[in-house]
Design a protein that fits this description.
The protein has 132 residues and is an alpha+beta fold. The protein has two domains: 36 residues, no CATH class; 70 residues, no CATH class. It has three helices and six strands. A three-stranded antiparallel β-sheet has the order 1-2-3, with helices on one face. Helix 1 packs antiparallel against helix 2. It is elongated.
Length: 132
């Protein structure tokens, strides 16, 4: 999201400086970022007992069975004391191997904790003890 804002400002700068190439390149990249963000989804299907995670522009769907969930993890990326990204990942076992899939990402730890609390509440109502 931050990158989209920066690119939008670059496009405006290209408009002010009468550089249409900069405007069109910035606009195209912003549209790609927005489409990528719009495609992100997390669906918890209690009837099938699985989570369906779709992330990114060209990413495939990751189907995580609720019974295969090992744990959730929160990863914060910082650069010179500024939090750049916080992501919530789920670790699960499929075909005898441990795999990881991103559930959600954002800027603050509190937002990811709220998402995790909601997911845990839904999973616990389904009868599966999720671990953090």
């Amino acid at each position: 999201m931050l990158i989209s804002i920066i690119l939008a400002l670059c496009g405006y700068g290209g408009y002010v400086a009468h550089l249409p190439v900069v405007v069109w390149i910035s606009a195209g990249v912003v549209v790609l970022f927005l489409v990528s963000m719009a495609r992100e989804s997390t669906v918890i299907d209690l009837a099938q007992r699985e989570m369906v995670l779709t992330k990114g522009l060209f990413a495939r769907k990751a189907v995580v069975p609720l019974d295969a969930i090992l744990q959730f993890e929160m990863v914060r990326v910082t650069h010179t004391l500024i939090t750049v990204n916080t992501s919530l990942n789920v670790w699960y076992r499929r075909e005898g191997r441990e795999k990881v899939a991103m559930v959600s990402n954002g800027f603050t730890k509190r937002a990811m904790q709220n998402v995790l609390n909601e997911i845990e509440e839904i999973i616990k109502h389904a009868g599966h003890p999720a671990t953090v």
